Amino acid sequence: MANPSRPDGLVHFGRIAGLFGVEGWVKVFSHARPRETIVDYSPWLVKTTGDWREMVVEEGRAQGKGVVVKLAGVDNRDQASRLIGADIAIRFSQLPPPSKGEYYWAQLVGLEVVNLAGQNLGKVDHLLETGANDVLVVRNGKERCLPATANVIREVDLEAGVIRVDWDADF
């Protein structure tokens, strides 16, 4: 996901991965959880040939391990094939506000990570979902993987752009 503090305010939400049928439906790889909720957000911004294009979701549903979607104005397989590989984003403002003390991954990407001793560990590059807990991937010349748990993450200050963690700089 993109950082919503970016000037464009977009959140990377998925990618168009393939074709489904002959009537313009596409297969979508979704970053939403649960994955099929990606169809609840419309319009999408779809990045084709370097430009973002607003597209309305007409229909969509879970299909096997993925999601299939019918976008307005995409009515046949040829039109749909031009979208394969395109990134899907939404505006951060389309997301419901998180509960107190909760954050979207997109809000954390790009934040500085500082330990309790005041040492800068780098910036959050991305997050991983591991099953047991999410993991912050922090980069500053080297890569660190920090568990996104309450005993490690002590404070998230979105205004200052800092996450304070209980983590030794030597790890």
Automatic annotation (TrEMBL):
<dbReference type="Pfam" id="PF01782">
    <property type="entry name" value="RimM"/>
</dbReference>
<dbReference type="GO" id="GO:0043022">
    <property type="term" value="F:ribosome binding"/>
</dbReference>
<dbReference type="InterPro" id="IPR009000">
    <property type="entry name" value="Transl_B-barrel_sf"/>
</dbReference>
<feature type="domain" description="Ribosome maturation factor RimM PRC barrel">
    <location>
        <begin position="105"/>
        <end position="168"/>
    </location>
</feature>
<dbReference type="GO" id="GO:0005840">
    <property type="term" value="C:ribosome"/>
</dbReference>
<keyword id="KW-0143">Chaperone</keyword>
<comment type="similarity">
    <text>Belongs to the RimM family.</text>
</comment>
<keyword id="KW-0690">Ribosome biogenesis</keyword>
<dbReference type="InterPro" id="IPR056792">
    <property type="entry name" value="PRC_RimM"/>
</dbReference>
<dbReference type="InterPro" id="IPR011033">
    <property type="entry name" value="PRC_barrel-like_sf"/>
</dbReference>
<dbReference type="GO" id="GO:0006364">
    <property type="term" value="P:rRNA processing"/>
</dbReference>
<dbReference type="Pfam" id="PF24986">
    <property type="entry name" value="PRC_RimM"/>
</dbReference>
<dbReference type="GO" id="GO:0005737">
    <property type="term" value="C:cytoplasm"/>
</dbReference>
<dbReference type="InterPro" id="IPR002676">
    <property type="entry name" value="RimM_N"/>
</dbReference>
<dbReference type="InterPro" id="IPR011961">
    <property type="entry name" value="RimM"/>
</dbReference>
<feature type="domain" description="RimM N-terminal">
    <location>
        <begin position="14"/>
        <end position="91"/>
    </location>
</feature>
<protein>
    <recommendedName>
        <fullName>Ribosome maturation factor RimM</fullName>
    </recommendedName>
</protein>
<dbReference type="InterPro" id="IPR036976">
    <property type="entry name" value="RimM_N_sf"/>
</dbReference>
<keyword id="KW-0963">Cytoplasm</keyword>
<keyword id="KW-0698">rRNA processing</keyword>
<dbReference type="GO" id="GO:0042274">
    <property type="term" value="P:ribosomal small subunit biogenesis"/>
</dbReference>
<comment type="function">
    <text>An accessory protein needed during the final step in the assembly of 30S ribosomal subunit, possibly for assembly of the head region. Essential for efficient processing of 16S rRNA. May be needed both before and after RbfA during the maturation of 16S rRNA. It has affinity for free ribosomal 30S subunits but not for 70S ribosomes.</text>
</comment>
<comment type="subunit">
    <text>Binds ribosomal protein uS19.</text>
</comment>
